[in-house]
Amino acid sequence: MRRRSIRYALVCILAVAGLAAAFLAHARSGPAAEPGFPATIGASGRPIPPTAASRAVGIASLQLIGTRGDRAFYRGTDAEHHPCLGAGNASDLGTVGFTLCSNDERPLTAANPVIVVPDVQMTQGSGQWELVRVDGFAADNVARVAVTNGAGAVIAQAPVVNNVFSVVPSVESDPGTIRAYDHSGKLVFSQSYGSS
Amino acid sequence: MRGRLLPLLAGAALLVLAPAASAGIWSWTGTFSSTNPHAGPCIWWHSGQGQACSGWNYWNTSAVNNSGAPNDGSLLVGFQNSSRIRGKYDPETVCCAQFRVTPGELGMGGYLIAQTEYATGSPYYATAWASS
Predict the structure, then answer these.
(1) Which CATH architecture has domain B23-131?
(2) Which 3 state secondary structure label does DSSP give A7?
(3) B45 to chain A: nearest residue by CA?
């Protein structure tokens, strides 16, 4: 009698586990991605072991796409094998400072040919955002990224190499507008941060 | 002995089926806009609307999960202390992603407030969270 109860209990547990697994699999599949630019950019990079700091923020594997100035750019995966992009200090290879990871197994998909990650700060009493740097990833056709301030003057620009770029303004500036151009000089992306 | 087996099996099954522990110990979910949210202990000199702020802690991650359709907006994700706010704009043009930033990346550390605030574009539904 007791053995039969155990058998029934095991069958029930397996059934519940199966239903839960099916539900989770469905939930993870989510809605279909919007059409756009897959962030599976051309540059594949070379494998580099993630540091303990990167593992602490969920990164399981990294490939170094390249360095631009004092910045290192990576693609990789998180602990659940979701694709990621990220960057960090080039003097501490393998440590990411920011990451952008897909919520599921699908590649990251961007609505624009450029993924721009500006870094800004505000100090007490200033009342204004100041641009510190702009890091980003770009599709193969993007050649150059430029930053203009609120007055429309170009304060910094940088080429896109191996699908990545890092722009540091030479003068103190508001976040302004970030524009990207293709190899023929055609504007392919523009994003203003002036309203922040 | 057999009488103990059933509770043990049930316990093991609960462990297997229990959802993974939440990655963050602070979170706020809702629509970020120029007027929402207006919640949390944000630093007094930038206590505007459109901000979600954690309490003070030794945070090691400030993050946003977005799961909706991409739009033209961006959220500022980062940290505050008594003298400075610093963060990175999370591009909402990237679909279905988790954006994370560490204090070290922003030249900050120690006892901080994690924050996410509306920056530009259309209102956006997301979960802001932080872990220590």
Answers:
(1) Sandwich (2.60)
(2) helix
(3) A124
